[in-house]
Prior knowledge:
InterPro entries: AAA+_ATPase, ABC_transporter-like_ATP-bd, ABC_transporter-like_CS, MacB-like_ATP-bd, P-loop_NTPase
Domain ABC transporter: 3-223
Mean pLDDT: 94
Distance between the termini: 22 Å
Number of helices: 9
Radius of gyration: 17 Å
Strand content: 25-35%
Keywords: ATP-binding, Nucleotide-binding, Transport
Family: Belongs to the ABC transporter superfamily.
Protein name: ABC transporter ATP-binding protein
Structural class: alpha/beta
Bound molecules: adenosine-5'-triphosphate
Shape: globular
Amino acid sequence: MILEAKDLNYYYQDGEQRRYILKDTSISFEKGKFYTILGQSGSGKTTLLSLLSALDSPHSGEVLFNGDDIKKIGYEKYRRNNVGIIFQSYNLVPTFTAVENVLVPMSITENEIPEDTKTVAYNLLDYIGIVKNKADRLVNRLSGGEQQRVAIARALATNVELILADEPTGNLDEEMEQEIIEIFKKLAHEHGKCVIVVTHSNEIALQSDQAFRLRKGVLTSYE
Ligand SMILES: Nc1ncnc2c1ncn2[C@@H]1O[C@H](COP(=O)(O)OP(=O)(O)OP(=O)(O)O)[C@@H](O)[C@H]1O
């Protein structure tokens, strides 16, 4: 098991009341599989993803990466070395080119990466479908689908085994959505990554190896 969440509780205080977004939520993930977590808007998908990626911490419960509590690994260290995150709104640096965006995580990771980082970054972008002349363009001069690809390449840049994505095709048309889904499948099935996508799209859920549904703070298997 590469990633495990155990009895996660997360709530907002509403006057005297606690409004639970996650209630005793447990879930586990293996390498080589493409997972989806399906839920309606406001169901807590982003919250769950932010706990799995150490962008936030639960009120109780724990997240284990390869059996180690990510709190013990250190949230920052875990983010720097173990997980690639793809955000709904890409979160790219707009004043950087595509290749410069991919170089950012490479400059801060402690993972072993080849010395010629620029070549690695260009190759990664090319693999994801961003050719050289687009790789040298400022990211805000690229289309939404292209920016999403750059965000995927950036998430892969530190050679992590775990990829987490928040509604990664939310801003894309159907054709582009399918291309991105194919990339996720390939990363899981050909490169052995663990890919976890939160989404409200049934279409993506149907194409994943395993799907869960999040509703009222409770996770169930989605058939
Ligand atoms: N600071 C806050 N105070 C109170 N409630 C909050 C706060 N931030 C988020 N929430 C609520 O927590 C719930 C879960 O939010 P979350 O962003 O995890 O949902 P989501 O499933 O990702 O939704 P979407 O698909 O719309 O992005 C929502 O009902 C939201 O209104």
